[in-house]
Amino acid sequence: MQIEPRQSQNPLIGLLIPVASALVALALAAIPLAFAGADIGAAYQQMWQGVFGSRFAFTEMLTRATPLIFTGLAAAIAFQARLWNIGAEGQLYLGALAAVWVGTGMIDGPQVLMIPLVIFAGAVAGGLGMVGPAYLRTRFGADEVVTSLLLNFIILIFVQMMLEGPFKDPMGLGWPQSEPILDSAALPKLIEKTRIHSGLILALVCAVVAQVMLTRSTWGFRVRAVGANPAAARHAGINVNRTLMGVAMISGALAGLAGVSEVAGLKGYLTADLSPGFGYTGIVVAMLAGLSPVGVVISALFIASVFVGADSMSRAMGVSSYLADLTVALSLICVIVGGFFGRFRIRFGQGAAA
Amino acid sequence: MMDILQIFLSESFWAASLRIATPLIFGVMGALLCERAGVLNLGIEGIFAAGAMAGWMAVWLGAPLWLGVGAAACAGAFFGALHATLTVPLGLSQHVSGLGITMLATSSSYFLYRTALPDVTSPPRITPFQPLDWPVVSDIPFIGPVFFGQTALTWLALFTVLAVWWLLARTPLGVALKAVGDNPDAVNAQGLSVYGLRFGAVMAGSALMAIGGAFLTMSAFDAFFFGMVNGRGWICIALVIFASWRPGRALFGAILFGMFDALQVRLQTEAGAVVPSQVFLMTPYVLSIIALVLVARKADYPRALLQPWFKGQR
Amino acid sequence: MEKEIVLALRGLTKRFGPVTAADDINLTLHRGEVLALLGENGAGKTTLMNMLFGHYTPDAGHVEVSDFKGGMLRLPPGHPQAAIDAGIGMVHQHFTLAENLNVVDNILLGAEPLFAFRRDQKAAREKVRKLMEDTGLHVPMGARVGELSVGERQRVEILKALFRETRILVLDEPTAVLTPQEADGLFAALSAIVKRGLSVIFISHKMREVLSFSDRIAVLRHGVKVGEMATEDADRAAIARMMVGAETVQPERDSLVPGAPILAFEDVHLRGEGARAGLKGASFTLHEGEILGIAGVSGNGQTALAQIISGLAVPERGAVILNGTPVTAASPAAMIAAGVGRIPEDRHHDGVISAMSVAENMVLERLDDPEIQNRGFLNKPAMKANAERLSREYDVRGPGISARATLLSGGNIQKLILARVLDRAPKLILANQPTRGLDFGAAGEVGRRLLAARREGAGVILISEDLDEILQLADRILVMHSGQLIETDSRDRAAIGLLMAGQAA
Questions:
Q1: Is residue C445 included in any domain, yes or no?
Q2: In this structure, are C272 and C400 located in the same domain?
Q3: Strands lying side by side in the sheet with C428-432
Q4: Cβ distance of C109 and B303 shorter than 8 Å
Q5: Residue A1: pLDDT band by 50, 70, 90 thresholds?
Q6: Where are the transmembrane segments (chain B) (predicted)?
Q7: Residue stretches of chain C with pLDDT short of 50
Q8: pLDDT (tens digit, 9 = 90+) per residue, B220-273?
Q9: Could you tell me the pTM of the whole model?
Q10: Range of C300's domain?
Q11: Does C146 share its domain with C230?
Q12: What is the number of domains present in chain B?
């Protein structure tokens, strides 16, 4: 058996791989379903119904997809520069914390002022959350995978500390939660009687801007060059460290926006269980999208469907909703294996037949 | 100041340090084996969870404790084999594959647990490993409780360090493992199997990580909780770099870490009124980052770490 | 009297996609014989040896080795272990040593059973010591290979092969990294071992050493064996024609009067990295219209020199003056802006971004140029036009300008870099090993381009391990040894060789 790189890349394959990977992951979910003793056909049908069965279900999926688009973009941009931002979960909480900080009465004003302010604060806080690990890497050579991962735990504990301390809502009946976001700082709802909010619009705008910047701007050129070959980029006069710090800031800011959007668009106040792992799931979203920002939107919709569908199926059939996490993990593994077959061809050696 | 001195002089502090260090010792040795062979295994966090779950589940289903440890090791080896398949012959990104393994191992453990126990609110308990009662030596003051009051798994951890050290320093297999992590071509040119060595190292290393996880449910606690691994795997990855991939230093690092954690718990009770308890809870993670920053430039990285190697392609 | 045959290659063929790297090659090797395998880069020498050694599985043909009883044994294809067991040893051009292990461990790797509780290190050392005595190849046994010099590492490679009772030793370009004197020493040691029955296949593209060291010569071109002869009957010109296929025109260097000084190094110091020397007080001046050749074995400070001129390293002491302006601490971007064109030593590592397109690689150094971008956004039509023009002018061939650079051959990657660098009409050109690994045609093209730039008034720093290239292109020659530069007026290989080895002529 021999592995050979493909001479040319068929653009169709680039599209086919993520779709096939997602379908294979969904199919593989039948194994745990069977293990749990569920009627597999009915389970899949229930999952489908849970997303596409009603208008409300569909808007729930879009609501769930919103933070995933942000964290997916955070991972996609960082990974393009080979900056391993695994800290989106923490950056999300930093963004949420900053949003709550400025949005719960520190200042008040008209919506046109408050909403941009909350968004800006969250983005800066999230960005700084990744600038730290990026600085430790460029200055001290400390692996940002480990530092950004560990920072997730530190930030979450810090958020708990804040929620039990200065940020605690005195009206919260003792629960560790923040005061509610002011009405003037809340992201408006998109459709009445659903939970879908304008954070989704912001996410879509971010995706389009990111796509244009990455493929059309000299900044995007530098990012891709640094990611693909930092030595050659440096030799060619690109300031690798500065590029990495910029990417860190933007990647962290996008993850911070996920936090803003959840707090100011959906929940209205901050608790320590704001995110069920959106930061980590963002990595899967980005990989499934082949690190393309526009692709992130599509893969976020898919992953959100898996979560919402599995939740609904879980309620109806009593199968643990961890099935969704399992399916998401399988998607990640399927897509990297799929990527391998996009880049390489396996030949079974006729030479071995002597 | 006096209080801190008193803490350092107490048996219970040192016994706790060693106890807290035990899962880390397993994890660090596992990660060290993988990385010495050239494969970063970020699946560690999930493999810890899988080991914790598998060991506990086996015992809960009626298996003897050591069979539970075996079950954990098998679960670890399984996920190790998956990681090795993706990263060794297929040469996929070790970072991404490792994170994928962590997600897969964690979610499948949780799924299995929930499937087996759909409706329990308080996690069922098992009878965990008990502290060994050695004749005579257990009664030695200080040394007795610190070392001989530990469970068998802590002793296994210490023995693992010795075994890994011996393997790397004294056996031909160890020499080949170190070589494959430095220059796979050197190993291949001598007719040894690069894939075989790396597969073996990743599977064995992952089994050790899983035993570290099993320690949590079978010795430190007596039940399985969601989120119980709580970053221990990531800390091990930082400790391996801190130890510059040397078993002895890794043991030192793990115990140092256990000491800080034990100290933190004691200081929390002393100073809890003035300082929020979260400040202390953060310390393990902060310390890991500091340790990493201190050694990052000086560490003796295995040269082939993260580098994919394909047969027949030079 | 014909000696017994120890090795026979029968019709070996290997195809990589559409390229046939080795086409039906037959060769025999006798006991105690040195067979030279001569050919350009890309002629198929290394492919052939990789098949012999089981690293590649041939598409057709097979390898036979003597079974010591007068018969021949067929080796299973694609099994390095079978080749090792048959007594075939190979010293690769890129050493296959583990740098984190010591000399003894490297020699023993794979030579002892893998699964043993412990190893007898004392006995192993004794065996290695005896081998060193027998062969006259000495290396400090306890030293980590990472700390050894290149020449010492090569000795470890040969010892490693001989330790396995090798009967057939394959040496791939063994002198590429040695001074002429070190190379002579290597050949002397090998000759002594050959007299005791070792057979050697010796791969090279340097005709001089082939003629002096081998018994028989086989010439490869484009994967085909185009000639085979006894060395004593060999005719230099005929071999050269066989290797290249047609007469090649060597670039002519016309005499020019050098102009004003363009680059000056004044007592520049820079610490080296690892086993590589840095710079210890380098001083020189380069003029317009002049090619300054830096001769010397790699690792003697060339990297430090190149890094400073590229803006990748800042000297600890001394001054670098470009066109009268100090640029001692300039960044790569500042050097590019100041009109320095740099052709990096490792073109794959530093020269191109292989995952990006040819067109993108061609504008890598001019992202701020208003012709390429407008307010931070790329001007794609201009990039396309630029790439098409440069591909035409510099004859960059490949699947097209929007294809990723990884799909280009080594020679075309170098042409891409030349196009990017020379199109900006740089005043100073740093050419670091510009022809390494290129075939005659591509190498000649590089030489012509450098001479053309010199005619336009550029100053060129040519760092090369290939002394012939330096003698051919350079107006002045500096020899680099352990971080120091010595100017020489001599054009004599032996005299320059002595300087390369650190001995005053």
A1: no
A2: no
A3: C340-343, C428-432, C459-464, C291-295, C476-481, C484-488
A4: no
A5: low
A6: 12-32, 39-59, 65-84, 96-113, 142-168, 199-218, 224-243, 250-267, 279-296
A7: 1, 505
A8: 989 999 999 999 999 999 999 999 999 999 999 999 999 988 888 888 877 767
A9: 0.91
A10: 259-339+428-433+459-505
A11: yes
A12: 1
A219-237 pLDDT, tens digit per residue, is 999 999 999 999 999 999 9
Strand pairing report for C377-378 and C340-343: unpaired
Instruction: Give the model's pLDDT for residue A354.
Output: 29
The verdict on a CB contact (< 8 Å) between B191 and C110 is yes
What distances in angstroms separate CA B278 from CA A273, B281, C450, one per listed residue?
A: 16, 5, 66
Q: Which amino acid is at A87?
A: G
- DSSP class of residue A263? I
Cβ neighbours, 10 Å, residue C199:
25
Residue B311 lies in a domain: no
Question: What is the token pair recorded at B72?
Answer: 């954990």
Q: Regarding beta strands C279-287 and C261-270, do their DSSP bridges make them parallel or antiparallel, or are they unpaired?
A: antiparallel
Say how many C-beta atoms besides its own lie within 10 A of residue C464's C-beta: 24
Out of C352, C353, C376, the one facing A218 most closely (by C-beta) is C376
Q: Residue C269 in contact with residue C291, Cβ under 8 Å?
A: no
Q: pLDDT: is A13 or C345 the higher one? A: C345
* Number of structural domains found in chain C: 3
Q: Which amino acid is at C179?
A: T
Compute the average pLDDT of residues A194-210: 96
Same domain, C335 and C467: yes
Query: Do C364 and A232 touch, CB atoms closer than 8 A?
Result: yes
∠ CA C102-C107-C111 to the nearest 5 degrees? Answer: 130
Q: CA–CA distance from C10 to each of A305, C21, C265 (Å)?
A: 61, 16, 56
**3-class secondary structure, B222:** coil
Name residues whose C-beta falls within 8 Å of residue C420's C-beta, 6 or more positions apart in sequence: C361, C362, C363, C364, C365, C390
What is the dotted CATH code of the domain comprising A2-347?
A: 1.10.3470
Q: Helix and strand tally (H, E) in chain A? A: 14, 2
ipTM higher than threshold 0.90: yes
Query: Which of B78, B86, B108 should one mutate to test binding to chain A, selecting the residue with the greatest count of A CBs within 10 A?
Result: B108
- In degrees and rounded to multiples of 5, residue B166 shows phi and psi of -60, -45
Asked if C500 contacts C179 with a C-beta cutoff of 8 angstroms, the reply is yes
Domain stops at, among C196, C215, C244: C244
Please judge whether B230 and A153 are an interchain contact, meaning their C-beta atoms are less than 8 angstroms apart. Answer: yes
In a domain, C131, yes or no: yes
- Asked, for residue B282, whether it belongs to a domain, the answer is yes
Measured between CA atoms, the residue of chain B closest to residue C91 is B189
Q: How do residues C335-394 score in pLDDT, each as one tens digit?
A: 999 999 999 999 999 999 999 999 999 999 999 999 999 999 999 999 999 999 999 999
Of C78, C84, C100, the CB nearest to B182: C100
Provide the angle, in degrees to the nearest 10, between the axes of the packed helices B247-271 and B152-170. 150
- To 10 degrees, what angle do helices A88-103 and A278-288 make? 120
List of chains touching C (3+ CB pairs within 8 A) = A, B
**CATH number for B80:** 1.10.3470
Could you say which residues of chain B have pLDDT below 50? 314
Q: Is residue B307 part of a domain?
A: no
